[in-house]
Amino acid sequence: MTVTIKDVAREAKxxxxxxxxxxxxxxxxxxxxxxRIREVAARLRYVPHGAARSxxxxxxxxxxxxxxDLHGEFFSELIRGIDLEARTHGLHLLxxxxxxxxxxxxxxxxxxxxxxxxxVILSSPGVDAAFLKTNLPESLPTVLLNSDMKAGAAAVLNIxxxxxxxAMVRHLAxxxxxxxxxxxxxxxxxxxxxxxxxxxxxxTRLVPGTSPRIVSGDFSEASGYLAGRELLSGKVRPQAVxxxxxxxxxxxxxxxKEAGIAVPGDIALVGFDDIPIARYVTPPLSTVRxxxxxxxxxxxxxxxxxxxxxxxxxxxxHTLGCDIVVRESCGGASGRNLNHHNQENPSRVESTTKxxxxx
Amino acid sequence: MTVTIKDVAREAKxxxxxxxxxxxxxxxxxxxxxxRIREVAARLRYVPHGAARSxxxxxxxxxxxxxxDLHGEFFSELIRGIDLEARTHGLHLLxxxxxxxxxxxxxxxxxxxxxxxxxVILSSPGVDAAFLKTNLPESLPTVLLNSDMKAGAAAVLNIxxxxxxxAMVRHLAxxxxxxxxxxxxxxxxxxxxxxxxxxxxxxTRLVPGTSPRIVSGDFSEASGYLAGRELLSGKVRPQAVxxxxxxxxxxxxxxxKEAGIAVPGDIALVGFDDIPIARYVTPPLSTVRxxxxxxxxxxxxxxxxxxxxxxxxxxxxHTLGCDIVVRESCGGASGRNLNHHNQENPSRVESTTKxxxxx
DNA sequence: GCGCACAACGTAAACGTTTTCATGCAGCCT
DNA sequence: AGGCTGCATGAAAACGTTTACGTTGTGCGC
Lengths: 359, 359
Prior knowledge:
2 copies of one chain form a homodimer. By secondary structure, chain A is an alpha/beta fold. Chain A has helices at residues 5-12, 16-24, 31-43, 50-57, 73-88, 101-112, 129-135, 161-174, 190-206, 221-233, 246-259, 292-308; strands spanning 62-68, 92-99, 118-122, 142-145, 155-159, 180-184, 214-216, 240-243, 268-270, 287-289, 317-320, 323-325, 347-348.
C-alpha cells in the first residue's frame, strides 16, 4: 500500500500518466514501455489505491447488500449467490447483514453512501417503500428482494411464492387430499402473505366447495408445534397440512409424533423453503424449494445491468420460480424412499423470469 | 451523493474546513456555527464521500473477510458474528466468500488492497503460511482463522478442536465405551487433523491399552455413510463411533439404520460441529458445539485491536473452546428425551481464550 | 525538403475530503 | 493602554488516481 503510482513512474522513468495508461491498458503507450512499466509495477508489488481511483472515476466496483439479522441457510446462500455473480462482473460485495429495524437499516444505508455503485436490499418489516423513499438517494441503482413495492425507482425481484404454493396444493389434491389445512407465517412478512394467498387461491380453484382450516404461526418451530396440536384438536382431522415454511412443518411433525399420528400414513405434511433439515427429519419432508443462490445471482445480474446501463431495467418486476420436491412426508407419489442419498428430481414449477416493464 | 462539502459550505456561508470540523466534532468551531452547519448538512442530505475521506485519512473503516466457497451454517454464522461485532467497532464488512483455490484467493486479496483497514482470513487448503507471506502486505492487520501458522505476522484464532474431541471421548469413556472408532476428515484440513490428534491423545490417555479403529472420511455425508458401512464390516463392532464432523455422523447413522443397527442401543454415535441438522435427525445427535458466531466476534475484536493499536497483539495465538452437547445418539446420560423443544445445557469444555504471546 | 498528421508521452487539473498553517479578532493581564 | 494569549475561521496543501490537453518527435506524403 505504501507504494504509489509515483514510485512506479520514477522507477520506470516515465510519468504517472503513462503508468496509469499502461496498467489500465487503454493504449497510447508503446508495447515496450508498457512491458517495462508492468514489470516495475509487479516488482514493486504496486496495487492502485482503490479510494483514490474511485474518487475520480466515480465507480467503486463495489455493491452493497443490506439485509436483516437473519441466520441460517437463506442468508448464506443468498450472499453466496450474490458474491459469486458479483465476481463475474468484477464487483465486490459490501455486506451489512445484521440490522434490526428501520433505524439500523437507515444508518447502514447512509454508511454505504459513496462506497457502493449499487445495492441489493432484502426487504424486511420496516424496510419498505416509504423507508426507501426517504433513505435511498435516487441515483443509486437498487434491486429489491422480496418486496411488495410494485414498481418504484428500483428493480424488484421476488420469489414466486404464489405459484409455488399453488403447485404444491395441486400435488396434494392430486393425491386425493381434500381437507388441507394451512399454517400461516407472520402477518407482516411478505413471503408469508403471498404463500397464504397462493394457498387460498389454489384451494378455491382446485378443491372447490371446501373452506380450508387456516391456523396462524410465525415461521418458528415452536409456533408450528402449537399449530400442529391445534389442528389435531379439532373434531375432524385434516388429511394434509401445508406449513408456510419448513421450520413450522418440523414443529408440526413433532406434534403429530407426540400424538401418535403417523406421517404420512395418517396425515400428509408439507413445508416451504427446502431448508437442509427438511431431508433429514423422519419422514423426509416434502416441500417447495426456492433456489436461493440463484435468487442472489439474478439480483446481482439485475444490479450489474442497472449500473452499466443507467435506467435500463429500473422499475421492473421479476419473479423467480420455485421447484416442488416430493419426499416422503406427503405420501403417495414415489412411495417410500429408503435411501436419501439418491438424487431427488424436483419438478420445476415456474422458473421463467417474467418481466413486467413499467414506468 | 452529488452534494459535496463545498455545497454545504456555500450554503452555510463558511469554509469547507469549518464544515469538516463541525461535522467531525473535533472542536475549533463555535456551537452556534456548528449548529447551523449541521442543519444545512441535514437539509441538503449531505453525506461525506467515503473514498475522498479515506484517501486522506488512510482509514477505510472497512475490514475484509476472505473465505473459501463454503455454504451452510458455518459461513453464515461466521459472517454474522463478524458483521455484528464490526458494527460495534464502527467498521464495515467487505466479503469475498467464494474463492476456489489459491489463485482466486490471491486475486481477492489483491482487490481488497487499499479498500480495507484489516482482514480476517479463514484458512483453507492452499491458503497457508507461504501463501500469506507472498500475498499479504506486511502492514495490513490480519487475523487468521483456523490456521496452523504458529505465530507469524498475523494473529491467529483457532477452535479448540483438540480439547473438544478430548472431552467428548472422556464422555464416551465415562459411559463405559472402550472400543471407540473414529472417522477422520480430509487430510489437508486443519480442523480435521486437530480433531484426529485430540482423539488419539484422548484414547491413549483415557482408554489405554486399546488401539482404536480409525477410518478415513472427507467431511461429506457420503464418506460418512461409507465409513459407517466399513466399521460394521469388521469382525468386532465398535461400541461407539466418533465422526470428525456432523455430516459424516449423519452418513454413519444412515448406514447403521440400513444395517438394522440401533443407535444408541447397539452403537453410540457422536459428531462434531453441532450443525442445525444434528438435533433433527433420529435419534438427535450428540456432538461438540463450536460457537461460530462467537468465533467471528472474537476475530473481529482481535482485528479491531490490531487496527487501533498497531502491533499490539499481532503474532498471538488464541483458541476458542467448544461445548459438548449430549443428546440421544450416545445413549446413557440423560436418557431418552422425547421433546426436543426443551433447552439443552451444553457443558462448556474450555472457553478461556488463552493468549500465547510471542514475537 | 518541407510541412503535416499522428502517436507517444508529460503536465496539470480535478475528484472531495482532512489538516496544517496563517490570519484576524477579542479579551485578559500587567 | 498595549501587548499577548487563545480561539474561531479561512486558505491551501495533501492524499493517489485518471484524464484532458499540450508538447515533442517521428514518419510520411507531396
